[in-house]
Structure formats: C-alpha cells, structure tokens
Design a protein that fits this description.
Layout: H1 12-25, H2 48-51, E1 52-56, E2 61-64, E3 67-72, E4 78-82, E5 86-96, E6 105-112, E7 123-129, E8 138-144, E9 158-160, E10 171-178, E11 181-186, E12 189-195, E13 208-215, E14 235-248, H3 270-283, E15 284-287
Antiparallel strand pairs: 1-4, 2-3, 3-14, 4-13, 5-10, 5-14, 6-7, 6-13, 7-8, 8-9, 9-15, 10-11, 11-12
Helix pairs in contact: 1-3
Length: 302
C-alpha cells in the first residue's frame, strides 16, 4: 500500500479518499492491486465426495486426480449439489473453462433454494456466459430474492470480463454470504459487494451450493444472438479445490460466518475496497443499477 502523509489540518474524510485514490491509482493494467487479505486461506479444501453429490447428468460427470469434470453435449449437460444447506458462509471452487466457441453455454457455481421453494426462490450466482472465439468470457454475478417462476423475475446482474484468460488455468471463484452482505471474489479479489438494505432485497432463507454446465442459448450470449453449436461439442467445465464452510440450516445461533476482512469483523478493508474499485473501473461491463431500461421501483437498493 502506498504511504500517505496526512497533515493535521486535513479533514479525516479527505485523507480517506486521498488514500483510496493513491491505492487504486498505484495498480497497473496487468492485474488488480493486492487486496491484502485472502479469505480462501482460512478455509480448508474438501473433496467433491466430502461436500457434494451428482444432481443430474451422471454420465456427463467424472472425478479424477482431485478434480471434477462435467460436460455438455447434444444429449445432456450435468450438475451437482452440496450435501447440506447453509444459512450463510463462504463457498468457493477453482474452475477452468472450455476454450473456443462456447456461445450459449453456461458454466456455473451458485447458491439456490429453488428445489425447496419452486417459483419463489433465492439465488446467488457465479455464471460464466459462453462466447465466440473473438470475444472474452463474461462472468455474470446475480442475486435473486423470491423472484422466479412468477413472471416477475427481478435479476440483479453485474457482469465482468476477467483480467486473465479463464480457459488457460484454474482460478478461484467464491461467494461470501453473511447476514448483512454478499461479496463475490475472484482469486481472493472482491469484485462485487451487495449489502442488505431491507429484508425484501436480501436472501435470508437457507440455500444449497450447486454447479452445472447447460445450454442457455436463448439468452446467454449477446441476449441469444449466438446459440450453442454442437459441432464443437463436448463443452467441458473443470472444478477443483472446493471450499465450503458456513452456518448450516437450523444450526446454532452462535454460529458466525467467515469474515471478509482481515479484521475478523465488519465488511471489506480499505485495501480490499480499492482492489474492487479497480476491477469495476476496468472490467465491469454491465450494472443493473445503471441500466435505463430497468424498472427502478423494483430495485430500490439502487
């Protein structure tokens, strides 16, 4: 972190924003500034069998050498689900995406209670939207609150490109969900923070952890302009280093989820916020709060 000399005559708020500016501007175009803290380092990895089971498409799922491979072809995709549900927690995995033409294909890791509350469920998404070879993958983060199946689906999408090629190697993607905030991480860099403003705009019911690969040709790539092309099948998603820890549903009231910051309490540190702002300044490609076509009476948190 760059040093900051703050004169006694300077207002504290000025010093705060000056420090934030210096931290953000000190980064380079190759990657975000260090967040200074790695939440993943406080969570042990579990094997797939310790934390998950196949949900659908078992013939399109393979375990080997500490990793899970799932794939989509014309006959089916595949999905998996955690063994237990959670009230809050830290949920992460390392993923490696399929290269080349992947338009229409979704590779995901997310929280949901759709099976428990069909048509009225909550969801917290990390979804990679497939693409054409001349364009980068888009990572879509999303939050649903009691909003699917009733013709009044209210998504809260923020979309990003990555500062690396997600098909070249494994990278860590995670969701930290606590009673007051949801934070999305990529390689321990926070890219989005979604705070609780009211019970109506924040998921509070227990959810399971899922992953899947499936055909979403109707909307995934440029609003459905490009469809899945099975001449390029199979489309493969790879997962490893599962990190799942949190407060289980119906767990003790004393349970506390993992902290997002090095202080052990509260929200992100100044250094983490500066890294997040860098990502949003350089790689954010869509923010639902700034979409003039959205009905903002339905998204009061904006």
């Amino acid at each position: 972190m760059p040093s900051l000399f703050c004169l006694p005559s300077m207002a504290p708020i000025f010093c705060f924003f000056l420090g934030l500016f210096l931290i953000v501007s000190s980064s380079n175009a190759q990657g975000p500034p260090s967040p200074g803290f790695s939440p993943s380092s406080r969570v042990s990895t579990v094997t797939f069998d310790q934390g998950f089971r196949n949900l659908w498409g078992p013939q399109h799922q393979k375990l080997g050498q500490g990793s899970l491979t799932i794939w989509l072809d014309k006959s089916s995709g595949s999905g998996f689900k955690s063994l237990r549900s959670y009230q809050s927690g830290y949920f992460g995995t390392a993923m490696k995406l399929h290269p080349g033409y992947t338009a229409g294909v979704i590779t995901s890791f997310y929280l949901s209670n759709n099976e428990e509350h069909p048509g009225n469920h909550d969801e917290i998404d990390i979804e990679f939207l497939g693409t054409t070879p001349d364009k980068p993958y888009t990572l879509q983060t999303n939050v649903y609150i009691r909003g699917s199946g009733d013709r009044n689906i209210i998504g809260r999408e923020m979309k990003f490109h990555m500062w690396f090629d997600p098909t070249k190697d494994y990278h860590n993607y995670a969701i930290l969900w606590n009673p007051s905030e949801i934070i999305f991480f990529v390689d321990d860099v926070p890219i989005r923070s979604y705070s609780k403003k009211s019970d109506a705009t924040f998921p509070t019911r227990p959810m399971w952890v899922y992953g899947s690969i499936w055909d979403a040709s109707s909307w995934a790539t440029e609003n459905g302009r490009y469809k899945a092309d099975y001449n390029f099948q199979p489309f493969v998603g790879r997962y490893t280093k599962f990190r799942v820890t949190g407060c289980p549903a119906n767990g003790p009231a004393s349970c506390r989820p993992l902290s997002a910051s090095p202080s052990g309490f509260g929200s992100l540190s100044l250094q983490q916020v500066s890294a997040m702002l860098w990502v949003q300044r350089n790689y954010l490609v869509y923010d639902y709060c700034h979409d003039p076509k959205r009905d903002h009476t339905q998204i009061p948190e904006c």
